[in-house]
Design brief:
Number of strands: 4
CATH class: Alpha Beta
Order of helices and strands: EHEHEEHHH
Strand order of the largest sheet: 2-1-3-4
Radius of gyration: 14 Å
CATH topology: Glutaredoxin
Distance between the termini: 19 Å
Helix content: 25-40%
Shape: globular
Structural class: alpha+beta
Strand content: 15-25%
Length: 149
């Protein structure tokens, strides 16, 4: 995450319905904003990061600029406190935090963006943080088991 200019990290629990809702919206936004890395990280499998970042309520989405946490979204209170919020509300929060750029500012100018696009589109899901850092693809059954190695 420190090697990427803009990063959105979703701390999740696979059994929490609201985490699945957040995933749906983030997956949609990841298809639109190729210059931002979108990652999901299993909170139970990542105690170091959970403690270091003070994650206490899930879903928790932390926004990073140049490796520094600049903002976060905890639960859905800022999105209307309902499960059926629109992706636009989520997008507005990301724009306000500066972790995504408006579409007219997005450029397809270098190979890194093309590679990131390919990784994000594989399976329509986020790439786990460790595998994304290595440039590897996600296996179907290893959402965040990368941290148990």
């Amino acid at each position: 995450m420190t090697g990427v200019h803009r990063c959105v990290v979703h701390f999740f629990h696979r059994d929490f319905e609201r985490c699945k809702i957040a995933d749906k919206h983030l997956a949609s936004l990841a298809q639109k904003y190729f210059r931002t890395r979108f990652v999901k990280l299993s909170a139970p499998d990542s105690p170091f990061f959970v403690e270091k970042l003070g994650v206490q309520i899930l879903p928790c989405i932390v926004f990073f600029l140049n490796g520094v946490a600049v903002d976060r979204l905890v639960g859905f209170d800022e999105l209307g406190a309902k499960d059926d919020f629109k992706t636009d509300a989520f997008e507005a929060k990301l724009l306000k935090a500066g972790v995504v750029e408006l579409a007219h500012a997005e450029q397809d100018s270098d190979e890194e963006e093309a590679e990131q696009r390919t990784r994000i589109r594989k399976g329509g899901d986020f790439v786990p943080a460790l595998k994304a850092a290595r440039g590897e693809e996600q296996d179907d059954d290893d959402e965040s088991s990368d941290f148990s190695d």
